[in-house]
């Protein structure tokens, strides 16, 4: 029982990073009705860029995280420019393929710059362990969770309390009507990518901080899990992605505890299929019924 | 010369993969599951020739049939998810298949050596072609016979009512339904045909590489599968073949002189091509132009 609680709590804390990746996928889908398959790779890329500052000056971990945050935003804008800005909206297949090309490109750039070697990532509070008997709460996971929660709160405040958020919601509901109201759709789309890029940079940095190393091999499983989180939470719903991320994180960790690492991912897929069969719209499906 | 035969073999097998995705993409379903059917076909054909001693043609028929059955089973739940969710669901299915084979052990001792798939290590010693004295040219011709057959089948579909029905469903489901087209039948049948071709391709792949493992059937292969029809354009079967030749011949082999930079260019070129020609190489206007070139006065369709 204690093992189960331990695995569950560790998983839920780590699942907050999956929630951030899921939010990124779901925001872009909600606003543009397109999938950006390169998002997880861009997050890891942002985390790598955060490490670049360490080459210049021995900076504290918070500065590294902040650099990853900023780099993620820049990469997000680049992805928007190359994959979404110039391709006409009526061609969803072309944008999908272009994002796949960006995924491959970002992966290869990372491999080239690091010669394929995993790099150590700085962590905060990794020596702090809160104990109650046999049950431990890792300090670094708590910090990851706290940062993720802060980012999610910031994002929700942005979406529901600012004019940019209002414009984003308007474009995601009815693009033509939003244009008629004078909202510049191109600018909103670009800002969505920058915002999700910023989130992605932090998510990548948090994953690096909790795992301890960064490797280009992280991109593929992260893409798959991020997409699963997005689908379970409902495409286009940010609260859904948050809850689904925590759910997938906890589920994965519990199953790893009881069935081992090699079968763990299989069960995550099974979770997805169960949701697809019983609730294809996800936990909080889109109300309008558009897809 | 053997090098070019080998290249032609790769192009042939990838063409089968691309054609299997082409037929499903025509109905508007973006599927990343073709690599999963490919994997199923590969392991089944390998096990049948190595462990059960079958000859190559029945083994390929069985792998193709099993690919079709699995695809049919996937086709029905796929109807419940719309649009881009299907991408994610099929991606997860492909990963699930790969993880299944990662955990799959089935070894039989044959003449003192244990043969068969062994989880992470994969399935070695699928030596049907070398044991029966096939040369590289024999294998290449064998592969291309099947590619030509698959192309002929799909080209014939395009000229028949079935092709028109497939494209109608792909263009506008609601309009197709209102004309009386049975969406379920069309989508599941397209998925099944795609699964059959992918299973066949997988069986051939297993035999010409002689060693298969779960890692080769991952997301990269799945994205290659849909990249070929998207890059080549959905207007015609030949578009997919052009795209396979472009990717495997030009990007993978032709740019080999660039060394490490080749992989960088790969992703970048895909992005550039999608920006410059969003509908693929052989889109409708290009096809019309080609027909005019060859058809002369009768070309204006």
Provide an overview of this structure.
- The complex is a heterodimer of chains A (291) and B (301).
- Chain A has 291 residues and is mostly helical.
- Chain A has 11 helices and 4 strands, in the order ααααβββααααβααα.
- Chain A has one domain (2-129, 138-278): Orthogonal Bundle (ABC transporter involved in vitamin B12 uptake, BtuC).
- In chain A, helix 5 (139-161) crosses helix 6 (163-173).
- Chain B has one domain (2-218).
- The mean pLDDT of chain B is 86.
How are the elements arranged and paired?
The complex is a heterodimer of chains A (291) and B (301).
Chain A: H1 2-32, H2 39-56, H3 61-85, H4 92-114, E1 119-120, E2 129-132, E3 135-138, H5 139-161, H6 163-173, H7 175-180, H8 185-211, E4 213-214, H9 219-233, H10 238-259, H11 261-278
Antiparallel strand pairs in A: 1-4, 2-3
Chain B: H1 2-26, H2 34-50, H3 56-78, H4 84-102, E1 108-110, E2 113-115, H5 128-131, H6 136-158, H7 161-171, H8 173-178, H9 183-209, H10 219-232, H11 237-253, H12 261-276, H13 284-295
Antiparallel strand pairs in B: 1-2
Helix pairs in contact in B: 1-6, 1-9, 1-10, 1-11, 2-3, 2-4, 2-9, 3-9, 6-7, 10-11
User: How are the strands of the biggest sheet of chain B laid out side by side?
Assistant: 1-2
Q: Which whole number gives the mean pLDDT of chain A?
A: 86
In this structure, how is the largest beta sheet of chain B organized? 2 strands, antiparallel
What class would the helix/strand composition of chain B place it in?
mainly alpha
Q: What's the number of helices of chain B?
A: 13
Give a short account of the largest sheet of chain A: 2 strands, antiparallel
User: Largest interface by residue count?
Assistant: A-B, 49 and 42 residues
What is the chains' assembly state? heterodimer
CATH class category name of chain A: Mainly Alpha
* Number of alpha- plus pi-helical segments of chain A: 11
């Amino acid at each position: 029982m204690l093992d189960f609680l331990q695995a569950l709590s560790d998983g839920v804390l780590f699942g907050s990073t999956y929630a951030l990746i899921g939010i990124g996928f779901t925001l872009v889908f909600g606003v543009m009705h397109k999938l950006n398959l390169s998002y997880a790779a861009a997050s890891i890329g942002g985390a790598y860029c955060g490490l670049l500052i360490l080459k210049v000056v021995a900076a504290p971990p918070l500065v590294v995280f902040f650099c990853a945050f900023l780099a993620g935003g820049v990469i997000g804008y680049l992805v928007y420019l190359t994959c979404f800005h110039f391709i006409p909206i009526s061609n969803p297949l072309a944008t999908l393929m272009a994002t796949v090309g960006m995924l491959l490109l970002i992966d290869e750039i990372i491999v080239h710059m690091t010669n394929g070697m995993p790099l150590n990532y700085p962590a905060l509070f990794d020596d702090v362990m809160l104990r109650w008997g046999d049950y431990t709460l890792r300090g670094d996971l708590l910090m990851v969770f706290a940062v993720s929660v802060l980012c999610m709160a910031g994002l929700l405040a942005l979406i529901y309390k600012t004019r940019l958020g209002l414009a984003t919601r308007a474009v995601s509901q009815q693009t033509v009507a939003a244009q008629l109201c004078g909202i510049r759709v191109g600018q909103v789309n670009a800002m969505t990518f920058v915002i999700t890029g910023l989130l992605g940079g932090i998510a990548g940095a948090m994953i690096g901080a909790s795992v301890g190393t960064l490797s280009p091999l992280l991109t593929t499983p992260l893409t798959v899990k991020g997409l699963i989180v997005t689908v379970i939470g409902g495409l286009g719903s940010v609260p859904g992605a948050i809850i689904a991320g925590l759910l997938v994180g906890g589920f994965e960790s519990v199953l790893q505890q009881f069935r081992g690492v090699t079968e763990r991912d299989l069960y995550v897929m099974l979770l997805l299929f169960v949701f697809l069969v019983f609730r294809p719209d996800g936990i909080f499906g889109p109300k309008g019924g558009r897809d | 010369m053997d090098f070019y035969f080998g290249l032609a073999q790769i192009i042939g097998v990838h063409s089968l993969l691309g054609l299997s995705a082409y037929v499903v993409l025509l109905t508007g379903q973006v599927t990343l599951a073709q690599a999963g059917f490919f994997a199923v076909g590969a392991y089944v054909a390998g096990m049948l020739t190595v462990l059960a001693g079958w000859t190559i043609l029945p083994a390929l028929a069985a792998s193709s049939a099993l690919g079709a059955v699995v695809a049919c089973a996937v086709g029905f739940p796929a109807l419940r998810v719309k649009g881009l969710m299907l991408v994610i669901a099929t991606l997860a299915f492909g990963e699930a298949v790969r993880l299944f084979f990662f955990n799959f052990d089935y070894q039989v001792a044959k003449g003192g050596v244990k043969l068969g798939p062994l989880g992470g290590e994969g399935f070695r010693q699928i030596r049907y072609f070398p044991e029966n004295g096939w040369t590289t040219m024999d294998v290449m011709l064998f592969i291309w016979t099947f590619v030509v057959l698959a192309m002929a089948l799909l080209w014939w579909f395009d000229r028949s009512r079935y092709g028109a029905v497939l494209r109608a469903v792909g263009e506008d489901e609601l309009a197709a339904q209102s004309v009386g087209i049975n969406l379920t039948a069309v989508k599941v049948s397209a998925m099944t045909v795609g699964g059959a071709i992918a299973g066949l391709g997988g069986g051939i792949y297993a035999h010409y590489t002689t060693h298969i493992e779960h890692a080769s059937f991952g997301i990269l292969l799945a994205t290659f599968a849909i990249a070929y029809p998207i890059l080549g354009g959905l207007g015609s079967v030949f578009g997919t073949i052009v795209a396979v030749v472009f990717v495997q011949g030009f990007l993978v082999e032709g740019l080999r002189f660039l060394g490490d930079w080749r992989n960088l260019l790969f992703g970048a070129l895909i992005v550039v091509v999608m920006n410059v020609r969003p509908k693929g190489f052989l889109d409708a206007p290009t096809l019309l132009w080609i027909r005019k070139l060859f058809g002369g006065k009768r070309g204006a369709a």
